[in-house]
Design a protein that fits this description.
- Chain A: This is AzlD domain-containing protein.
- Chain A: InterPro entries: Brnchd-chn_aa_trnsp_AzlD (IPR008407).
- Chain A: It holds the Pfam family AzlD.
- Chain A: Keywords: Membrane, Transmembrane, Transmembrane helix.
- The complex is a heterodimer of chains A (111) and B (249).
- Chain A is mainly alpha-helical and 111 residues long.
- Chain A has a domain of 50 residues.
- Chain A is built from 4 helices and no strands.
- The longest helix of chain A has 28 residues.
- Chain A is flat, with a radius of gyration of 20 Å.
- Chain B is mainly α.
- Chain B has 12 helices and no strands.
- In chain B, helix 11 packs antiparallel against helix 12.
- The longest helix of chain B is centred in the last third of the chain and has 31 residues.
- Classes of the chains: A mainly alpha (111), B mainly alpha (249).
- At the A-B interface, helix 1, helix 2, helix 3 and helix 4 of A face helix 2, helix 3, helix 4, helix 5 and helix 6 of B.
Chain lengths: 111, 249
């Protein structure tokens, strides 16, 4: 029983806790029409949710990055986004530039 | 004869979706899952538990939160609550993909099954590429990408588990930063409507601000409140553009 308990937690508190929302999304989404007003709203909510999670990963990171200065993480992400826009929205630029800046900054700070 | 050709086309679009595994987003997610397996090992999970969690939950933030509560020996109900709050975002994400993915004839059961493979990476992939696929083959295309991505990452967790227990801080930091900066540029690049860009900016600002103000429901408030604000501002903009168009005629 003890060794199976972790799997029960994973299925109930992990799988069910997550997939309930996916199933509800299917049921709600099947009633939406493409280019309906409701879909505009749903898209906006989904995007704002994902970006809130994303911004929190940079501003309040866990693990190693929580020991790095905030200005370095914000600076790397901000300059990276600027160059991404300047490059005509090349995703490769938007990913490579912040990572290079972050690594250079961490190295310079003696990480 | 016609159905045979049809089936072959479905298969070819499924394979086309599978090829997405070699795309930049998929490679970045794989790097993130190498980081996850190191985190799972450090937290005392077994290899089997880490693999089952990846296959059954399939949402990196939810998996991190679940492990966090398990390490803290939280009650299963508390773990459920923490994970389910972080996963509410799945509902609008899945709902926004459905009208683009399904046809009139797609069985609901198929959509329920495929919804399991929707997480941030495959959501971004679907928002970018579904519109280029002929509608009857979109389900096959997404199934090819989504299932391949999930199973490949489960294999990556299984293989890398225990190989690296701890990365040098520089590498760990870079791995952690990959996911958010990838989301930032790919979601902006795939945004076609102004309302999405507006919601993007509002979400980026509200996420960290509300994390300070209401730490427990920050993401929920930022999403529903910020998304609704973006929608209303965009609606006002569209209505005004329509009106000025009408007066110009």
């Amino acid at each position: 029983m003890e060794e199976w308990w972790t799997y029960i937690v994973i299925i109930v508190a992990g799988f069910l806790a997550t997939d309930i929302w996916r199933w509800l999304g299917v049921l709600a989404g099947s009633r939406l029409n493409e280019d309906s007003e409701a879909l505009y709203w749903v898209r906006a909510v989904a995007t704002a949710l994902v970006m809130a999670v994303t911004a929190k990963l940079i501003v309040f990171p866990t693990g190693t990055l929580s020991h790095s200065p905030l200005w370095l993480r914000l600076g790397a992400a901000g300059i990276g986004f600027g160059l991404f826009l300047a490059s005509g929205r090349k995703v490769g630029v938007g990913v490579a530039v912040p990572i290079i800046l972050l690594i250079a900054g961490l190295w310079w700070l003696g990480f | 004869m016609a159905t045979e050709i049809d089936e072959r086309r479905h298969l070819s679009w499924f394979l086309q979706g599978m090829r997405g595994i070699f795309s930049l987003p998929a490679l970045i997610l794989m790097a993130s899952y190498v980081g996850f397996s190191a985190f799972a090992l450090e937290s005392g999970l077994s290899r089997g538990e880490a693999v089952v969690m990846t296959l059954s939950v399939w949402a990196l933030p939810a998996q991190m939160i679940l492990i966090g509560t398990m390490v803290g020996k939280a009650h299963i109900a508390a773990s459920f609550l923490a994970v389910t709050l972080s996963s509410i975002r799945m509902m609008p994400m899945v709902a926004s993909i459905m009208p683009e993915m399904r046809t009139q004839k797609t069985p609901v059961g198929v959509l329920l099954f495929l919804s399991h493979f929707i997480a941030i990476t495959s959501w971004v992939f679907a928002s970018r590429h579904l519109r280029d696929v002929p509608r009857p083959y979109r389900v096959a295309f997404f199934a090819g990408f989504g299932m391949t991505l999930t199973f490949t990452n489960a294999v990556i967790v299984a293989i890398s588990f225990g190989v690296v227990s701890q990365f040098p801080p520089l590498v760990a930091g870079a791995l952690f930063m990959l996911t958010p900066v990838y989301f930032i540029s790919s979601i902006w690049a795939s945004a076609q409507q102004p309302v999405v860009k507006l919601a993007f900016v509002i979400g980026v600002i509200l996420g960290p601000v509300l994390a300070v103000v209401t730490p427990d429901f920050d993401v929920l408030y930022a999403g529903i409140g910020g998304g609704t604000a973006a929608y209303l501002i965009d609606r006002f903009r569209r209505k005004r553009a329509q009106r000025s168009l009408r007066t110009a005629q």
